[in-house]
Design goal:
The protein has 366 residues and is α+β, with helices and mostly antiparallel strands. The chain contains eleven helices and twelve strands.
């Protein structure tokens, strides 16, 4: 199991090295209670978070994790006041119907080797020189990553209030992602700097035709197959009513503007020439009117949309990116897991009418 995991070693207190030599850092978001906030306040928080993502260039990937766990461990009463003891006993009696929500943000920086000189090429033939170059690159990339992460923390300090996790808390987060049995997800031993993948994987995964299984938990994975045309703040509030534990992961990667412009120009030329068929010009004389040539209006509409994309990039200073969403549901009872999958579909189909037609084929079950 550990061979499939990417984390490899800790580089400092807040940075983790992957097997692809990328670096990432984990942030915990305490979360904001939306019950007492109106739509304007929720939009303000979402827009602040959206604006903070502009600091990430094409070399970054931003992952957002939402962890929902059933029957969480309840804290003990700090003092023996009768009211505190009564409240603790009341919550302990309802432990099976309670759940906890945890929010995390993982910022990953993909390493880019910029030194292409002959000395850098020859250094790969020397073990000592190679290790020295790698340490310098790790130190430089770690510093760049932490500068960006600290900038994100400062920008969101008055709204989401994120903070960077240390080594122990990062290990706890990674183990909760991979282990759904509560006693295996906790960190009970000393944390080693190397071989993180072996420390994370505490249980294997069995692959069955209709589901996955880990220990006593049945697992189903849902993935995003089609993006909605638009979203709004707190659009997924109904996910909290799903009667099982789950892990939601979204990935965002900004695309380079030069590459996107080249791709858009390529598509513009293609659809511009494809809007008229070559057969329309065969047999047409010099006196053929323009309205007598068959033109595919759908191709013209696509060209206009691509022109609007260029306008967003050049005039409004927006950018494009790649987004993906994956939901992992798990439960000890297989029928309950199937009901949770149906409830998940009900949540997405319960969106407003303008989005309902788009999300009918939103998810596919793996």
């Amino acid at each position: 199991m550990h061979e499939l995991l990417s984390p490899c070693a800790f580089v400092g207190e807040h940075v983790v090295l992957t097997k692809r030599q990328d670096l990432f850092s984990v942030l915990r978001v305490p979360g904001i209670d939306p019950e007492c906030l109106d739509a304007a306040q929720l939009n303000h928080i979402v827009q602040r978070f959206e604006a903070s993502l502009r600091i990430f260039g094409p070399e970054y990937r931003v992952y957002q994790y939402l962890l929902k766990r059933d029957s969480p461990e309840l804290p003990n009463a700090e003092h023996r006041h009768p009211a505190s003891v009564s409240r603790a006993e009341f919550l302990a009696g309802r432990a099976e119907s309670l759940y906890s929500i945890e929010l995390y943000v993982v910022v990953l920086r993909m390493r880019t080797l910029q030194d292409s000189t002959m000395r850098a090429f020859l250094s790969w033939f020397s073990v000592n020189q190679t290790m020295q170059v790698s340490r310098k690159e790790l130190a430089r990339e770690s510093e760049l990553l932490m500068n960006t992460v600290n900038s994100l923390v400062v920008q969101l300090q008055d709204t989401a209030r994120p903070y960077v996790l240390g080594r122990a808390d990062s290990m706890l987060f990674l183990r909760r992602l991979m282990n759904y049995t509560p006693w295996k997800a906790g960190v009970t031993s000393a944390i080693q700097d190397f071989h993180i993948d072996q420390q994370i994987a505490q249980a294997g995964v069995e692959c069955w035709p209709r589901h996955l299984k880990q220990d006593d938990h049945f697992i189903k994975v849902l993935s995003l197959s089609e993006l909605p045309a638009q979203t709004f703040s707190h659009v997924l509030r109904g996910l909290l009513s799903v009667p099982c534990g789950f892990v939601i992961c979204s990935e965002w990667k900004r695309e380079d503007n030069h590459k996107m412009r080249a791709q858009i120009d390529k598509k513009r030329r293609h659809y511009h020439f494809a809007k008229t068929s070559m057969m329309s010009y065969l047999g047409a004389g010099s006196d053929t009117k323009e309205h007598e040539i068959l033109i595919d209006d759908s191709k013209t509409a696509v060209v206009n949309e691509l022109n609007q994309c260029l306008r967003e990039m050049e005039v409004n200073e927006n950018y494009f990116g790649r987004f993906s969403l994956t939901i992992t549901l798990y439960h000890v009872d297989e029928p309950a897991l199937k009901r949770s999958v149906a409830k998940m579909a009900e949540v997405f189909l319960g969106l407003p009418p303008e989005l309902r037609q788009i999300v009918k084929r939103l998810f596919t079950v793996r």
